[in-house]
Amino acid sequence: MYSNMLRNNLKNLIKSCRSVQLQIIDSVGTNHIITNQRRFKSDLYEPDYLISLQPDEPVYDCLNLQLKGYDYAILEACQSQIHRYAEVMGLQVEDCWATPAQQLKVQRFKPGSTALDAEYQLNIYERNVQVVDVPAWALGTLLRVSRALLPEGCTLNVHEHTPEHEEIRYVPDNQLIDLKQQLEGMGGSRADKKKKR
User: Fold this and answer.
1) Is residue 65 part of a domain?
2) CA-CA distance, 52 to 139, in Å (whole number)?
3) pTM to 2 decimal places
4) Does residue 115 lie within any of the structural domains?
5) For residues 68 and 89, what is the distance between their CA atoms, to the nearest angstrom?
6) Is 187 within the bounds of a domain?
């Protein structure tokens, strides 16, 4: 129910940003609706040098919205809602992905001693939503909506996309890595031996 209300409010906010309507009531009592559409630089009747002096709105090239939490199902539902709201806002969602879970071993000790009281195995799951060409005005709205959708116990981080974020997505093949190390230990492959000669 809360997400439906938030979705409707967001749609109304976006519609109101696109066009502004003013209602004027005459002394006779008739309603006149004046619609003021958003003006673009090409629509202005200004000299070119004045248009070029106006600052362009900043645009973020590629941003990752990174969600982390302990429950995968809740985290995935939150990620799909953020994806849907970004598309409703007209932002381009480039990619969405999950990364392998981090496994943590947490130990609790008895007060004032080194004796173990309890031990827990925790999994931290991560989901990412990648948006590209985000205008600065839309980023604030997207972050407010994302924070409102964020379930309890989950965290949201926003950062620019780097190659490290791409590499962490894939699970390394330990068997292949071991075979490559054994091959190098035996002197390398045949192609490498021919190149040395």
Assistant:
1) yes
2) 25
3) 0.60
4) no
5) 23
6) no
